[in-house]
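Weekly structure sync, notes
Attendees: PL (lead), two postdocs, one rotation student
Agenda item 3: pending single-chain targets
PL asked that the sequence for the first pending target be pasted directly into the notes so everyone works from the same version. It is reproduced below exactly as submitted, 423 residues in total.
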Amino acid sequence: MNLLTVLGACLLALVNLSSAEHWAVLVAGSNGYYNYRHQADVCHSYQILHKHGIPDERIIVLMYDDVANNRRNPTPGKVINQPGGPDVYQGVPKDYTGKDVTPENFLKILNGSDMTGIGSGKTLRSGKDDHVFVYFADHGAPGLIAFPRGELYARDLLNTINAMFAKEMFRQMVFYVEACESGSMFNKNKLPPNINVFATTAANGQESSYACYWDAKRQTYLADVYSAMWLQDSDKADMTSETLQQQFLKVQNETKTSHVLEFGDLSIAKEPISQFQGKQASNNLTKIIPTIIPKDAVPSPEVPMMTLYNMLQAAATNDERRSIRYEMEVLYKKRESIKQAMRTIVHGIFEDGHPKHAAMFENTAQVEQHECYKTAVTEFTKKCFNFNDYEYALRQIYVLSNLCDEGLNEQIILDSIHNACAK
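Predicted structure, written out during the meeting:
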């Protein structure tokens, strides 16, 4: 190869690099005011990307959008993400809201499918030289993350990622995932190291992520611990010099409540944050507040009960206290009924005393029988408890994975679910 050929190849590489674009997909996969924090996290992430130069046409936001103007919000039209923090809601694109926030739409957007007639119609139009950043905040369970309508399963996400790679939709792609048991979306070599994708998660595959920053005025938690740590780091970081790995290590060190993990192509972690969160320097960032290490972190499944407890502590009258205690009692009974339903499902297959009965509750879910698990979870949400109404039910469905991984006939599991939850 002569010198001119080498110089030409280098020049072409530089041209391709300079024409590379940044794309982002930001998802708050929950609804309801008690889940305020997920939309606050996503709104904050938008402000960072936008003010570092990623244009709105290349930032796609999915969020239910029922928090900012909720009747319970004492500051209508405003959302904050940290104590004393600024409004992070202003200017956020409302690309997909309400009923359009679904796992199906999310996967279609990642795949660059035509979204005409749905929401804003924006979809990922990235190419082989581009960098893609994906951030998701919501609830999770073994091998899935939840949406207001439906669930996104690890295998379906991986299939989409592989399809994106095959279609050359990115040079490199990064996922940040805030959810309980979020490590289960990528662990056990689910995310290959050779497709230019790097991921970090708030928790391993067996533990909760944590909410934080109780706000007495708003009567809700403002953020999630892992998300608060990366967002506040990005607020003040020199993005052109700090690497993804440096940010990961900071977040891992400052998240004391769960195990922050990384997966996939770890060489991408050597890249500066600016490759994924925006290169443009800005002195017009959202008001920067020093990192606030949470001292009131609460496991995500306990947020509804702790919200009521905090409200009880602040109640001014006996009537208010009675009303809140009643709500706590109802919530406690519902949680017990969820656990009882799962015990009944298992009992319908393995009676008490059967060697495998106890193992269904004691084993960590591996989610080996994907289609069985998916079908069983869908049936459980239809016949027993919808996760959107009863988030605590997500803490119990590891049992369904264990039943499926026993190699049982799928219909046996479905029949037991139906019998346990028959009205």
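Discussion points:
- The first helix runs from residue 3 to 18.
- The two ends are 76 Å apart (CA to CA).
Action: rotation student to compare against the earlier draft before next sync.
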